[in-house]
């Protein structure tokens, strides 16, 4: 009878633990006003085709590819995201460990000497015995949470969901960082091309002004012609500092994404280059690291 009672108790405990977790999460229905429009249906708002995760390689620009590969190792936001992923995984392990048997042990040692004064003075020690002795203490305690109501399991589920959200946030940060880097790089090359065209036009405007001045000296042109040529040259020259400031700002913006100090990339990005045209041909190359492992341990 006793064995049957124990068996029934264990069976009841297992049934209770299986049913005490409660219902799983279900996405709530949306009761939006009709003026907001219908809910998006599955398949109508999502691109189902293959996505090129190394889209910057389609520009076939070695400098851009080098910057993107360094971005995954040097960007501070991506490094913070990697640490947060490691933290989320550690928290999930901590939550899961709460359901395992726990064992704690503590020990201590003390060297004691009994005083010959006080109550011990009434006792007569055995001849040759010492009033000094060693005291050892060992304490072992064990515990095990059976998780009958599913608290630990729900905690593990919550930490796993938090890890997934953290990983998705880091991937979104990587996508935004690459997008900002590529946009700044394209704008930089465009600004440099504008500077080259403007400097060429300034040189032509100087030549034109000299010709007009020569014609004025020979009585062929008027003061108005000279003034118009000089004004055109001055207007073009006034636009050049603005383009130079924009170039410096874009170089510093790229350096900020790579965690570089201001003006650190001027020698690398300062020489003008053409804006790379996109190509439909897909290519393979280095990818931005989105895994939580530190650079150098695992491939991204």
TrEMBL record:
It holds the Pfam family OEP. This is RND transporter. GO terms for molecular function: efflux transmembrane transporter activity. Transmembrane segments: none annotated. Belongs to the outer membrane factor (OMF) (TC 1.B.17) family. SUPFAM superfamilies: Outer membrane efflux proteins (OEP). InterPro entries: MdtP/NodT-like, OMP_efflux. Keywords: Signal. It comes from the Bacteria. The keyword Signal applies. Residues 1-20 form the signal peptide. Residues 268-300 are annotated as: Disordered. The keyword Signal applies.
């Amino acid at each position: 009878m006793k064995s049957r009672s124990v068996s029934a108790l264990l069976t009841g405990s297992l049934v209770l633990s299986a049913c005490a977790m409660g219902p799983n999460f279900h996405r709530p229905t949306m009761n939006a006003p009709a003026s907001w429009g219908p809910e998006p249906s599955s398949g109508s708002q999502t691109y189902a085709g293959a996505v090129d995760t190394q889209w910057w390689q389609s520009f076939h620009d070695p400098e851009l590819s080098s910057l993107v590969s360094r971005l995954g190792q040097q960007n501070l936001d991506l490094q913070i995201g990697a640490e947060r992923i490691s933290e989320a995984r550690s928290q999930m392990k901590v939550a899961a460990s709460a359901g395992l048997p726990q064992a704690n042990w503590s020990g201590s040692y003390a060297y004691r000497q009994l005083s010959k004064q006080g109550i011990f003075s009434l006792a007569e020690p055995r001849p040759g015995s010492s009033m000094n002795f060693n005291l050892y203490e060992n304490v072992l305690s064990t515990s095990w949470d059976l998780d009958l109501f599913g608290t630990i399991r729900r905690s593990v589920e919550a930490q796993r969901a938090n890890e997934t959200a953290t990983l998705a946030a880091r991937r979104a940060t990587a996508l935004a960082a690459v997008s900002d880097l590529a946009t700044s790089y394209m704008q930089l090359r465009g600004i440099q091309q504008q500077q080259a065209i403007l400097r060429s036009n300034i040189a032509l405007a100087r030549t034109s002004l000299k010709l007009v001045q020569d014609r004025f000296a020979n009585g062929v042109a008027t003061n108005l012609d000279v003034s118009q040529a000089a004004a055109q040259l001055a207007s073009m020259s006034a636009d050049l500092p603005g383009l130079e400031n924009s170039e410096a700002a874009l170089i510093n913006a790229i350096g900020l994404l790579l965690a570089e100090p201001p003006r650190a990339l001027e020698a690398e990005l300062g020489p003008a280059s053409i804006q790379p045209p996109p190509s439909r041909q897909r290519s393979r190359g280095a990818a931005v690291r989105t895994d939580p492992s530190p650079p150098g341990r695992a491939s991204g």
